[in-house]
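User: I'm putting together notes for a lab meeting next week and I want to include a structural view of one of the chains we've been expressing. I don't have a solved structure, so I'd like a prediction I can at least talk through. The sequence is below, exactly as it appears in our construct file.
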Amino acid sequence: MLRLLTISMFIVPGLFSVIIHGYLRHGEISRRKKLALFVLYLCITNAISFSVSYLRGVKGFRFSDMTLSYRLKYISLGIVLGFVVPFIVCLFTEDAITIGGFIRYGKRTGRDIKKYMAYAIWSAKASLGAEVASSYLNWLWWLIEPFCMMLIYTVIFGYVFKAKEDYFPIFIFTGITMWGFFSRTINGSIDTVRNGKDIITKVYMPKYILLLSKMFVNGFKMLVSFGVIAAMMIVFRVPLSIYILFAPIILLVLFLFTFGVGSIMMHYGVYVNDLGYITGIVLQMLMYLSGVFYSVSKRFPEPFGDIVESFNPVALFMSSMRNCILYGQMPAFGLLGVWAFISLVLSALGIFTVYSNENSYVKVI
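Assistant: Thanks for the context. Below is the predicted structure for the 365-residue chain, given as structure tokens.
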């Protein structure tokens, strides 16, 4: 097992980088070039990972002395590099990808968001109104559902499994609120283009605007739930600290990460009919690894809790939010900065994919 993990430490980041490189080039790479790129990425990712290890005090590189946690951190760092490094390499190896091209896409994205933002907001308002138009309790359902789930999980985990986190009902409600925004958006992104075919077959608009509209709907519900959290903090007499001011920054990074993942899932949802089933299973697994009901860093044996929390962005966002609003602790700005950068890369990748393929969406749906 350790031998397989050791081999994966060096091989997986290179393979992952080649996949991202091929994604940027729409698969237009020969086998010989893929092999050359694999060797290149193998050298680059491992050189950077080894340099980071050296700067953090790991002076030698003997396999017999490597701990399991070191191997996991090494391969996780390599995968993160696999997201970023291909963008830089493509600038030097691919004529079709240039800095000017990135700038043009950036300007086009800014113009389109400015032009169609009014529609995204109007559509979100219409969806929120239609959602509660025929119900007796109206918008109260946006509070009742997460509140009931909070009560259930508080009883199960707080009393049956005797969870020891302070302010446990608010702890649970915060996790449910943030996870609900992420999971609903990712699940909904898969059918976004298909559900919006009546619009996109008649009027042109960037397809990620439909995703933004859906995110505004889920984001509004999340903010309503955070209003309940504020009231609960008063009831439970949670001491306030200056770090609560960082909560909007955490939500902004969560929004950006969700948009990046959602825009990519939206693209593949057009072509893969079974993607919704696969995504549901993956999200179910991810929920239990994200600490919705417990603190990941405390429940996993050391040092695996910190590893899971560092390399699972949703777990990191939840933990950072709880530290800010409940425990008066500064969030891990270093890790948040890294995931904010990765979120920007994912968003750029998703927008690039949508712009490159949106003309074919109409034909498929």
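A couple of points you could mention at the meeting. Residues 101-364 form one domain. The chain has two domains: 2-97, 101-364.

User: Perfect, that's what I needed.
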